[in-house]
């Protein structure tokens, strides 16, 4: 994918295309007070899917859908929700379909909006937060990020929490 070659302006197009699916899953399966966090974690998972996608192994829409589902499931488990994980979330990859609904005009506008968003996020975050976010979006675990940056897992979690708040406040 172009994004793996450093062309990040296409990332916003992908995020916007999958955002309705992310929001639908979060609202459908998470308690109301956890929807926003689930959406953010699933969006991070989508970014990670974009970075790690291998077109030789699968179709992107299936891979992304699985990553999004796993993020929602992980969010449910992490927050010890009493609600059982719905069976629909555990469907096979083959059963997942995603419609394309982007027009050429909206793609161009979204590319411009993405650049502004990326610049805005970069300006909001400290250097440490930006590095943590970058590593997290690469799919690294808290412990891997902590080891690479020589900080504790708790510091990684705190940084991601601050990042979410900053993004939420600027969104």
How would you characterize the overall build of this protein?
The protein has 171 residues and is mainly α. It folds into two domains: 123 residues, no CATH class; 47 residues. Helices cover 67% and strands 0% of the residues. It is built from seven helices and no strands. Helix 6 crosses helix 7. The radius of gyration is 16 Å and the shape is globular.
Give a brief description:
It is built from seven helices and no strands.
List the helices and strands and how they pair.
Elements: H1 11-29, H2 35-52, H3 60-78, H4 104-124, H5 127-137, H6 142-149, H7 153-170
Helix pairs in contact: 1-2, 1-3, 1-4, 2-3, 5-7, 6-7
Task: Supply database-style keywords.
single chain, 171 residues, mainly alpha, 7 helices, 0% strand, globular
How would a textbook summarize the main sheet? none
Q: How far from one another are the termini? A: 27 Å
Structural class: mainly alpha
The beta-strand count equals 0
